[in-house]
Design brief:
The complex is a heterodimer. Chain A has 26 helices and four strands. By secondary structure, chain A is mainly α. Among the domains of chain A are: 160-261, no CATH class; 325-449, no CATH class. The two termini of chain A are 12 Å apart. The model of chain A has no long low-confidence stretch (mean pLDDT 93). Chain B is of the alpha/beta class. In chain B, the strands form two sheets. In chain B, strands 1, 5, 6, 7, 8, 9, 10, 11 and 12 form a nine-stranded mixed sheet that branches. A three-stranded antiparallel sheet of chain B has the order 2-4-3. The chains are: A mainly alpha, B alpha/beta. The interface between A and B is large, with 46 and 42 residues. Chain B: Pfam families: DUF1501 (PF07394). Chain B: This is DUF1501 domain-containing protein.
């Protein structure tokens, strides 16, 4: 059994060594989460408003943009700016994880970013998906789940990703004039993935009614986010046994508030948190306690985290999960002693060769998960022949290119594995023929790849 | 270099034989051993990422409007196919296959994807195999995987996704093996030995590493190459596509029945004359490599389908290339097909016949060709193909592509 400090670093953090001043008790970890967001200040990421400002100009002149040389040039500049900020945001995401004393915040951010997956395909490397997380998820990490849910559902990137921008109420003013119809995508994922969970107590009729309720919620690249009454299906709609009626967004907000507190939502997300942080088969009493807290507090996330961290299972049990490829790379960079500032100065090519290309080869094409259900959780999905071979390859190759001199393999094992190091690993690292291979064995070891 | 010899040595170090190795048992012997499953036919699906210009690969030289749209590209050298169509010289090495009835094309075909012309969305739809009525974000698996889900006694190695590109077409609950032959873990013998010790007590890591060694073992080739420098040179020159094809062939000679991989380099917005030729040369090499490595008997039971997300504009653009369009062409090869023919209904190129007045009009859904191929090769039920594998597809009459 490993010490609380290494458990904090592996299970709830971004790896060892713990950053100076890192909290190691549940109370201190929770207090840090509620403290100032130092990392967001130090390594800023653009908001979607910034994206919209740049893209709306071209969207407003769509016709001219095809022929007008000035606009064409402007489009090119904007594309390049979006890309540039996307790379900057990637650097910032790594830097925050490496430098954060309250690394749990970055881990929670990754959890919620995956829970509310948006994958922007062609724009996978652009700023959009980072901006979404920065705007809609990060401010609400420790607040009320209902606020996060509302921010997510109103965010342009989510509205675009789940086709809400195409959804038109069948009896709306717009449908009557120009046709168009309902798109159920957001409504379905909202229930299936974001809140109640697949197989929970909702029906296809609920999905349909919810899709009608959501009409009017849209984003337009020219005008930005707005509730557009001409798209809205005339009410009332009955979802989950309750009727919602009224003008504008009020009924949507009322429904989201209910949904956020729903017992199925409480259970589904409590379990998902426990699965993510602890085990694919988490302790039932922990999940039940978290769900109880959720319902009692109306979805106060800091309270739910508190129940998880103070439960007896929180610091017990074995390392049953895999570090996902992203966590693997970040923990290795941190373990090698790189700082956020160093990563912020990396050119694009370095990010591609050290982070993006290896992540893809390890099975985690960054910011481009296979579907709205995000990345798999089970260890078997990650420790595959291909995945492990790529991790070994990374471990053997990149440390030597990133730090000079390399740490002594034994010292590195003590730093990044601490009391988790197995006898076999400690035996092996000092028998490697080169320092680089010794370092590689540390990072390729099961102890480093499990959490 | 990890290879099979090293693996066997490694397993020796674990103190057990290959046959008794727990992970090898679960993977290579999963499913029934009765040889049910898919039978003997081999299917290779190649996704051509970037939108291949079907009009340049299989040129409708007999269409009176073609030359006006393609003043430069249309005049480039070609090989005669059937008096109406001519083939790009980038595929000249396949011309003997055409003559032997082992090469065919389908023209003016496309997925149901319309109007948006985004590579990523187009590829997603092509690989998901769904129609426009189902939002792509709700489809979690690919059509080849949905086909596998219906195979009784499926073994893990029945289907293989080869190469570094993610193959959505094979993604889903049915077990599929994946390997990129370029995953070269250059471990010294000592490092390998040490890792074996480090993984010794962790069954998951031990088995994943052992399987990685097994998959990575293109051992016969490597051993031969060690002894023959000229051969080693040829291997190095083959490039990733060639290694992918050689690896796929090796697996198809054994238990694998379906293999999928992708080739890139088709997005020819400019200098198409040169770039398309390079990409076609690569495709040609891949097919010739498959034919050579599979040998006459297995090649005779093989169908290769190369499909792309959409075609390109009928008119060439101002930079010697073409832009994103709609209908394109599919290539079929192998001893199991009825080749020497350009399939599909030709829509013509008059302005009124074009899609959106700019693109080749689709006259068939590319999924119908795949569906009929799977029916012809493996005898799958029409209802299953139209409901589960390609939900909502109307297959229509058998075009007779499969012998």
């Amino acid at each position: 059994m490993s010490s609380p400090a290494s458990l904090v670093a592996f299970r709830y953090g971004c790896g060892l060594p713990l950053t100076q001043g890192a909290p190691t008790t549940p109370d201190a970890m929770l207090a840090a989460l509620q403290g100032p967001d130092e990392m967001a200040r130090r390594f800023p990421v653009m908001s979607y408003d910034w994206v919209h400002e740049r893209t709306s100009e071209i969207a407003q002149n769509k016709k001219a943009a095809k022929t007008d040389p000035d606009l064409l040039a402007r489009q090119k500049t904007v594309d390049e700016e979006l890309k540039r900020e996307g790379f900057r945001a990637l650097r910032a995401t790594i830097a925050r994880s490496i430098d954060a004393p309250d690394a749990l915040r970055e881990r929670l951010l990754a959890f919620w970013a995956d829970h509310f997956t948006v994958s922007s395909g062609a724009q996978a490397r652009s700023i959009a998906s980072y901006a979404f997380v920065e705007d809609a998820v990060r401010p609400h990490l420790s607040g009320q789940f209902g606020d996060m849910l509302s921010a997510v559902v109103h965010h342009p990137v989510m509205l675009l990703y789940l086709d809400q921008t195409r959804s038109v109420g069948p009896n709306s003013a717009k449908a009557k004039r120009r046709g168009g119809g309902l798109n159920e995508n957001l409504a379905r994922e909202l229930l299936e993935l974001h809140t109640m969970g697949v197989g929970a107590g909702y029906s296809q009729t609920d999905v349909r009614q919810l899709a009608e309720l959501l009409t009017g919620l849209t984003y337009d690249a020219r005008r930005g986010y707005a509730f557009q009454p001409n798209l809205a299906e005339p009410g009332p709609e009955e979802v989950l046994g309750k009727s919602y009626e009224g003008k504008g967004e009020a009924p949507i907000r009322a429904f989201l508030a209910e949904l956020a507190r729903h017992p199925d939502t409480a259970r589904h997300i409590s379990r998902k948190l426990a699965v993510h942080f602890l085990s694919d088969a988490p302790d039932d009493s922990m999940v039940a306690a978290m769900a109880e807290t959720w319902q009692r507090t109306g979805g106060s996330l800091i309270e739910v985290y508190g129940t998880m961290l103070r439960h007896e299972a929180a610091f017990a049990g074995s390392a049953a999960k895999a570090r996902q490829p992203w966590d693997f790379v970040v923990a290795a960079l941190k373990g090698l002693g790189l700082t956020g500032e160093t990563v912020m100065n990396w050119p694009r090519e370095r990010l591609v060769e050290v982070v993006l290309a290896p992540l893809r080869a390890m099975g985690q094409s960054w910011k481009n998960p296979p579907g709205p259900d995000g990345w798999p959780e089970d260890i078997e999905s990650w420790i595959t022949p291909q995945g492990l071979a790529e991790r070994i390859g990374w471990a053997m190759r990149w440390p030597a290119e990133l730090v000079d001199p390399l740490p002594h393999p034994k010292a590195l094992a003590e730093t990044v594995l601490a009391d988790r190091a197995s006898a076999a690993t400690l035996w092996a690292v000092v028998r490697a023929e080169t320092v680089a291979e010794g370092v590689g064995i540390v990072f390729a070891s099961p102890e480093f790849n499990r959490r | 270099m990890m290879d099979r010899r090293a693996l066997l040595r490694g397993l020796g170090a674990f103190g057990c034989s290959a046959a008794a190795h727990p992970f090898l048992t679960t993977v290579t012997l999963a499913g029934t051993a009765s040889g049910k499953g898919l039978g003997d036919q081999r299917l290779v699906v190649i996704i051509l990422r970037g939108a291949m210009d079907g009009l340049d690969v299989v040129r409708p030289l007999g269409d009176k409007d073609f030359a006006t749209y393609r003043p430069t590209l249309g005049k480039a050298e070609h090989l005669e196919l059937d008096g109406f169509f001519g083939m790009h010289v980038g595929l000249s090495g396949l011309h003997p296959l055409w003559a032997a009835g082992e090469l065919a094309f389908v023209h003016a075909t496309s997925t149901p994807y319309r109007d948006k012309r985004s590579h990523f969305d187009g590829q997603d739809l092509l690989e998901a195999g769904t129609g426009p009525d189902l939002p792509i974000s709700q489809v979690r698996d690919g059509w080849l995987n949905r086909l596998l889900q219906s195979v009784p006694g499926l073994k893990a190695e029945t289907a293989f996704a080869v190469g570094r590109q993610e193959m959505r077409v094979l993604r889903g609950p049915a077990p599929v093996l994946e390997w990129a032959p370029d995953t070269a873990v250059d471990l010294s013998p000592q490092a390998q030995l040490l890792l074996e010790q480090v993984y010794h007590d962790d069954a998951l890591f031990q088995s994943a590493a052992a399987e990685a060694l097994l998959l990575g073992g293109a051992e016969d080739m490597d051993m031969a190459a060690e002894m023959d420098p000229a051969k080693a040179m040829r291997q190095a020159k083959r490039g990733e596509a060639g290694r992918v094809a050689a690896y796929a062939a090796e697996k198809l000679r054994q238990e694998t029945r379906i293999a999928a991989f992708s080739l890139t380099g088709w997005d020819t917005h400019k200098a198409q004359g040169k770039r398309l030729g390079q990409s076609l040369r690569q495709l040609e090499q891949v097919i010739l490599r498959l034919k050579a490595d599979l040998g006459p008997e297995i090649w005779g039971k093989t169908t290769v389908l190369a499909m792309t997300e959409f075609g390109r504009t009928v008119a060439e653009n101002g930079t010697g290339g073409t832009d994103h369009g709609t209908a394109g062409a599919m290539l079929a090869a192998g001893g199991a097909i009825r080749g020497g023919k350009v399939y599909g209904q030709w829509p013509g190129l008059s302005e009124a016949a074009l899609f959106d007045r700019r693109d080749l009009m689709p006259t068939s859904d590319v999924r119908t060709w795949a569906a009929h191929a799977m029916r012809g090769l493996y005898g799958f039920d029409r209802t299953l193909l139209q409901s589960k594998v390609f939900p909502g597809l109307e297959m229509g009459d058998d075009p007779g592509l499969i012998l």
